[in-house]
From TrEMBL:
<keyword id="KW-0012">Acyltransferase</keyword>
<dbReference type="GO" id="GO:0016747">
    <property type="term" value="F:acyltransferase activity, transferring groups other than amino-acyl groups"/>
</dbReference>
<keyword id="KW-0808">Transferase</keyword>
<dbReference type="Pfam" id="PF01757">
    <property type="entry name" value="Acyl_transf_3"/>
</dbReference>
<keyword id="KW-1133">Transmembrane helix</keyword>
<feature type="transmembrane region" description="Helical">
    <location>
        <begin position="12"/>
        <end position="33"/>
    </location>
</feature>
<protein>
    <submittedName>
        <fullName>Acyltransferase family protein</fullName>
    </submittedName>
</protein>
<dbReference type="InterPro" id="IPR002656">
    <property type="entry name" value="Acyl_transf_3_dom"/>
</dbReference>
<feature type="transmembrane region" description="Helical">
    <location>
        <begin position="39"/>
        <end position="61"/>
    </location>
</feature>
<keyword id="KW-0812">Transmembrane</keyword>
<keyword id="KW-0472">Membrane</keyword>
<feature type="domain" description="Acyltransferase 3">
    <location>
        <begin position="9"/>
        <end position="95"/>
    </location>
</feature>
Length: 99
């Protein structure tokens, strides 16, 4: 299924690049690499997290603007968030059982 012209954007590319930056940063921590710091006091991973927050805030604001009101917005948000929230224990359970 092709996305409509209204929903085509570069946010997926930005999110992918930010995710790769976070992985790179974690790899540097795990393997004790001396990675460059792109901005004074902010690692590449921290900047990537800021990118995620910025994109999320923008997309949530767009969702609010397209909604017919707070109830419509709340139902759509709950429909997007709660299915993953309910499945989380199924995937978390095997690792959380104490032996």
């Amino acid at each position: 299924m092709q996305p409509s012209a209204d929903h085509r954007n570069n946010f997926n590319l930005l999110r992918l690049l930010a995710a790769l930056a976070v992985l790179w940063n974690h790899g540097g921590f795990l393997y004790r690499l001396d990675l460059p710091v792109p901005f004074a006091g902010h690692s590449l991973g921290a900047v990537a997290v800021y990118v995620f927050f910025f994109i999320s805030g923008y997309l949530i604001a767009q969702s609010w603007a397209r909604s017919d009101g707070w109830l419509d917005y709340s139902v759509k948000r709950a429909g997007r968030i709660f299915p993953g929230w309910w499945w989380r224990p199924c995937f978390q359970w095997p690792w959380s059982v104490r032996r």
